[in-house]
Amino acid sequence: MSLLLRKPAPDFSTIAVTSSTGFRSMTLHEFRGRYVILLFYPADFSFVCPTELQAFSDRAQEFRSVGCEIIACSTDSQYAHCVWIMQPRKQGGLGDMDIPLLADKSMKIAQSYGMLDESTGLAHRGMFIIDRVGIVRHISVNDIGVGRSVEESLRLVQAYQFTDEFGEVCPANWRPGAKTFKSTNASKAEYFKGAG
């Protein structure tokens, strides 16, 4: 797996499924100018995945209010995504979703991000934060049995945005409004500022 941190995020062109638009073509490039959280998850109709996707979807507007879009991706087809969304939450489905699910049946998207488990053909539970100019700023991968934190994901987006805007660095557990640090070394400041 090639580490994509601080490198351009691989673009993609595929079919996305949402509750409001149904099937539509989607590329990463169309989100240029906004932050993106790209969530890879192993499979539709599984156990941990719906809890994550529903939690992120339920707070999608909060992410949009800070200039960030959330996109989810698995190696399932757009048809499987559609059936899963149409199935009510009480019956094990996703129900209404406010984030798109990308179809990656060819596995090319998962492979380009280093998230493909070659032995199963499923994506790892990975998360990428991509900045306004398309640079990967954060990568995390959970083992299959543990879901991600929506709250921590939002905090990370806000921290990267803060460093981009002000060139300062954010300490552990930083939240908007908390103290940050100014770097005294220009090269370190540029490193921490990032490319976006």
From TrEMBL:
SUPFAM superfamilies: Thioredoxin-like
EC number: 1.11.1.24
Keyword terms of this UniProt record: Antioxidant, Disulfide bond, Oxidoreductase, Peroxidase, Redox-active center
Molecular function via GO: thioredoxin peroxidase activity
InterPro entries noted in UniProt: AhpC/TSA (IPR000866), Peroxiredoxin (IPR050217), Peroxiredoxin_AhpC-typ (IPR024706), Peroxiredoxin_C (IPR019479), Thioredoxin-like_sf (IPR036249), Thioredoxin_domain (IPR013766)
Keyword Disulfide bond listed: yes
Active-site residues per Swiss-Prot or TrEMBL entry: 49
One GO CC annotation: cytosol
Gene Ontology biological-process entries: cell redox homeostasis; determination of adult lifespan; hydrogen peroxide catabolic process; removal of superoxide radicals
Domain Thioredoxin: 3-162
Origin superkingdom: Eukaryota
Transmembrane stretches, start-end: none
Reactions that this protein is recorded to catalyse: a hydroperoxide + [thioredoxin]-dithiol = an alcohol + [thioredoxin]-disulfide + H2O
Family: Belongs to the peroxiredoxin family. AhpC/Prx1 subfamily.
Role this protein plays: Thiol-specific peroxidase that catalyzes the reduction of hydrogen peroxide and organic hydroperoxides to water and alcohols, respectively.
Name used for this protein in its record: thioredoxin-dependent peroxiredoxin
Lineage summary: Eukaryota, Metazoa, Ecdysozoa, Arthropoda, Hexapoda
Name of the gene encoding the protein in the UniProt record: LOC117568027
